[in-house]
Fold this protein.
Amino acid sequence: MLKISLINPKINHIHADREKYYRMYQETGIDGLDYSLYKFTEKNGYESDFFAMSAEEIIEKHLAKEKEELDRYGLAVCQTHSICPTWRYGDEEGNRRRLRDTVRCIELTAYLGSRYIVVHPVQDTLQLTPDEVRARNIELYGKLIEAAKKNDVIVCLENMWNTRNGNIFECTCEDPYETNYYIDTLNAMASEERFGFCFDVGHATLCGKNLKNTLITLGNRVKTLHVHDANKISDLHTIPYSQMGNGATPLTDWTGFLLGLRSIGYRGTINFEAHAAFEVFPEPTHKALLGLFRAIGEYFSNEITNA
């Protein structure tokens, strides 16, 4: 049985409810969570200087008590999410700060007991050519190698999307061959496996990707998942099977998604990045909602492992 984890806005943004939700995680059979470290910048201002503190200071002031709660309820931190964005065009001073913050997130990932951190790539912009985007990404991730090695953490790139004039289009790492180039090049630079991939099924669906073939092309580079539904218009981050086309046809190709993961022998966590569901459903239903996530996770696990 693969582990099941998810992100939850009640944990991320309403700290008074945190332990209540950890208890519900435990009671409904959720194994752990995707810990979004960017929550600290959201709470203190999106581009705050929160991570100017040392890792030790952040742990003492903000993480130690929460880590005790996680341990008490038997919850693992299966993966983390770094700050975003990691880079902005023309903002060199800000980019130096974002690099520092990303390194700090790697250090905190190790403290939380996770091996995987998701770090967004530099995305296509009107100002950069494709070759420039590639060079910027190799430079950015290359600067994370030392911290990744020191903290025994795998840095996971993620497939991205963007929109312009109402049109959705592929962005960095939606092309699996481009992604393979990044990961293989960076691992060669590190002389060991320090980079992998987080496959975001909602982003891939928005961009009209063939989920099965994309996953097969990525192969064992896929280490983590962002599982959520999308309606091919917006990045909804909601529960699987909730978005339908005509009749009862799911808009996301869940069958292809599961077959792709089975084909590559995926044995990582089934991680739901479906936090919007907890904002849509009334709070009294949240425990039942967690149970539904657990049931979907069990189904996914059985389909992937052919149990």
The chain has one domain: 4-305. The chain is about 45% helix and 15% strand.
